[in-house]
């Protein structure tokens, strides 16, 4: 029973580990392989025309799934160090991340509300129309990509300190000290991470197009079919199917990520010291930071 529980706990790492998921945000067309293309096109057109009243609830559920996705990524990341850190540290770090992430989402929501109010104000009083919907989509898309990218890069940098059992806040402080004295190495490795992520997504896109696309389209395998939205239940149903398609894409992307991540970790400029963290430093770092 314990082994079954451990396998279940490892599943998030398989679906959302490392930079898994970024391929969909950077290349949304990769979802086409898992969703019925005609149904997807009809659904998108309806959302921005005669069913625009369903757009807010659709955005809400898509954002909800994004929050779940990011929290799963953080859980999978912390789970890699569960044998080297106390349960208290694991729980504290996860709760701290969850609180900070929700603050960020709240700030994003407030910014979008301000843009909407400004657009309405100028339209009503000055008859000046701004492309509010387009601005909404660009801001949301860009912000979601930046959050996922930053989470992967910062977690990769912190991994050496986390392996030594440090609290995440202390690991962040030690990382700042390292970067301050090794600026060139910090920039070089960050650029390497950025390049590896984009190269892996390019390879995945190429493999999907040349190898798997003919199988998908000829046999209609693994394609989820969206429904016409007549009730809020249909909206929920469609967003759940999109989330499933997203996870299927991640599952197929996972082996390539494992291969390339093992390569990129070899060049990590911070070498593991394999020693226990200083208890006094831990006490100093946790309450006030």
Helical amount among residues, as a percent range? over 70%
Coarse morphology: globular
The number of distinct structural domains comes to: 1
Oligomer: single chain
Q: Report mean pLDDT, rounded to a whole number.
A: 84
Strand content: under 5%
Order of helices and strands: HHHHHHHHHH
Question: What kind of sheet is the major sheet?
Answer: none
**Rg over C-alpha atoms, rounded to the nearest angstrom:** 22 Å
Report low-confidence residues grouped into runs of 5 or more: 283-289
Number of helices: 10
Question: How far is the N terminus from the C terminus?
Answer: 39 Å
Structural class: mainly alpha
Strand element count: 0
Could you please describe the fold and organization of this structure?
By secondary structure, this protein is mainly α. The protein has one domain. Helices cover 76% and strands 0% of the residues. It has 10 helices and no strands. Helix 8 packs across helix 9. The radius of gyration is 22 Å and the shape is globular. The C terminus is likely disordered.
